[in-house]
């Protein structure tokens, strides 16, 4: 997999390419103004590869956990009071941004053991330390969602650990708004959809049985969605808009060889691929709900945590975007939310006893009160959700 790093310097302003209908944000665009010819570096160095291999090894070592699966609620023989064991929650991509803030918020309560499922073990360890998380409240396990083998290995290690699974949070994501060419996962899927959707799809499917087995009072599968995948909002109408079309690219495997790298079969566009992947995330959550909620009691939900404009998600955007995006969201759209606040919101979706409704897409109003939000027509299209489920099953080797 070719890892792509952030553009280091912005270059000249340019008008949108001729012949392209409408404004496009594809070329490192900034609030409707297009930047061209930015500098991009390919970090496929052996140093990075070595680091990843090391992480894989250490991840497995650190994956060992207590093999006791105590019942969720026990009654003390001393005073007869009921006590709830610590919940176990896996959070993917907990090494930065929203995932880290959520891990911290949950760990701080002392009621949760957080399994930080991360592709970079050392980064995750440093992040947990600097967030002040105490060791007994978290473990780190290696997971690279851009490799289905890694997903399977992660699931095997988790199952072997004997730890129950009460909540799974699919949070990790990559966003490549400046990429001119697609990059690919280990299996050859376009990277954004491959990581954000297919990696999480396999992970959730393989861990569903563990969630089913959990005797915790409320077991949940949470998938992080976004406003930008919902075309019923202003943010979702900023080009390029999410659109999965007739799924012909997904059906072909998104490999760019005999098929398009984009779900709808169109030309590669990194920003669109990300938004498409978020639509898949939100559709997947609803399909899980339809297929499994009634029989299993598991709560399936997605959310838009607010615009956390300071996170690493924008690392591949040009520096000027990264500079102006936070004040733009703070003072103009007023959609800005800090990492800490967003972490509290996601932690609420994980653990708040009042947020047990399944099949729901949560959002928050200005005073940070949660409400059930409306998804766009495409992001709530049942037939599309079913087709994506079936195509994804084939791509990840489940069918
Ligand atoms: P960050 O970039 O800070 O966090 C993303 C995390 O995903 C990082 O920990 C990253 O790991 C991890 N990740 C990326 N690729 C892989 C992979 N192949 N395997 C495992 N982990 C991987 O961004 P955010 O915190 O902003 O994003 C978190 C979620 O929030 C995403 O789902 C995003 O779509 C969503 N979201 C974000 C919004 C925002 O405004 N920021 C708004 C709406 C939704 P590493 O640290 O190693 O890079
Ligand atoms: Mg958006 C209420 C308006 C609103 C909100 C809540 C967001 C959230 N954005 C809004 C409006 C606008 N944005 C407008 C009017 C513009 C054009 C000037 C605009 C532009 C813009 C860009 C170029 N916005 C962006 C980008 C990105 O590259 C981000 C993106 O699409 O990432 C996929 C982004 C975002 N705006 C948001 C949010 C939450 C994002 C990023 C994160 C995400 O959806 O996961």
Automatic annotation (TrEMBL):
Recite the UniProt keywords alphabetically.
Answer: Chlorophyll biosynthesis, Chloroplast, NADP, Oxidoreductase, Photosynthesis, Plastid, Transit peptide
Stored Pfam families: adh_short
SUPFAM superfamilies, per the entry: NAD(P)-binding Rossmann-fold domains (SSF51735)
Q: Name one GO biological process term.
A: photosynthesis
Any one Gene Ontology MF annotation carried by this entry is: protochlorophyllide reductase activity
Protein family according to the UniProt entry: Belongs to the short-chain dehydrogenases/reductases (SDR) family. POR subfamily.
What is the reaction catalyzed?
chlorophyllide a + NADP(+) = protochlorophyllide a + NADPH + H(+)
What metabolic or biological pathway is this protein involved in?
Porphyrin-containing compound metabolism; chlorophyll biosynthesis
User: What PANTHER family does the record point to?
Assistant: PROTOCHLOROPHYLLIDE REDUCTASE A, CHLOROPLASTIC (PTHR44419:SF19), PROTOCHLOROPHYLLIDE REDUCTASE C, CHLOROPLASTIC (PTHR44419)
Which cell locations does it reside in? Plastid, Chloroplast
Identify the EC number(s).
1.3.1.33
Q: What is this protein called?
A: NADPH-protochlorophyllide oxidoreductase
């Amino acid at each position: 997999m070719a890892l792509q790093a952030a553009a280091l310097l912005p270059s000249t302003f340019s008008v949108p390419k001729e012949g392209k209908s409408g404004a496009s944000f594809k070329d490192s665009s900034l609030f409707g103004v297009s930047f061209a010819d930015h500098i991009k570096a390919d970090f496929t160095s052996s140093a990075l590869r070595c680091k990843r291999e090391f992480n894989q090894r250490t991840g497995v070592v650190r994956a060992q956990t207590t093999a006791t699966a105590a019942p969720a609620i026990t009654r003390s023989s001393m005073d007869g009071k009921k006590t709830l064991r610590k919940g176990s929650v896996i959070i993917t991509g907990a090494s930065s941004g929203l995932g880290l803030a959520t891990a911290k918020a949950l760990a701080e309560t002392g009621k949760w053991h957080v399994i930080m499922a991360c592709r970079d073990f050392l980064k995750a360890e440093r992040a947990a330390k600097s967030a002040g998380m105490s060791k007994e409240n978290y473990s780190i396990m290696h997971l690279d969602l851009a490799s289905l083998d890694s997903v399977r290995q992660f699931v095997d290690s988790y199952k072997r650990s004997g730890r129950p699974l009460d909540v799974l949070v699919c949070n990790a994501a990559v966003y490549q708004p400046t990429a001119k060419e697609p990059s690919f996962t280990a299996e050859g899927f376009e990277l954004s959809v491959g990581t954000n959707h297919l990696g999480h799809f396999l992970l959730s499917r393989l861990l569903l049985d563990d969630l089913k087995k959990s005797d915790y009072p409320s077991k949940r599968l949470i998938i992080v969605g976004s406003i930008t995948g919902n075309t019923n909002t202003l943010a979702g109408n900023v080009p390029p808009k999410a659109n999965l079309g007739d799924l012909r690219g997904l059906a072909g495997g998104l490999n760019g060889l005999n098929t398009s790298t984009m779900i709808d079969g169109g030309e590669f566009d990194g920003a669109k691929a990300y938004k498409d992947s978020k639509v898949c995330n939100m559709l997947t959550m609803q399909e899980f709900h339809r297929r499994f909620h009634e029989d299993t009691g598991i709560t399936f939900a997605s959310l838009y945590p607010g615009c956390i404009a300071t996170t690493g998600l924008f690392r591949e955007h040009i520096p000027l975007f990264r500079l102006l995006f936070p004040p733009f969201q703070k003072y103009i759209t007023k959609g800005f939310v800090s990492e800490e606040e967003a972490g509290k919101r996601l932690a609420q979706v994980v653990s708040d006893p009042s947020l047990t409704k399944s099949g729901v897409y949560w959002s928050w109003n200005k005073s940070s009160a949660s409400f059930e939000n409306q998804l766009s027509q495409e992001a709530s299209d049942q037939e599309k959700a079913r087709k994506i489920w079936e195509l994804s099953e084939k791509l990840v080797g489940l069918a």
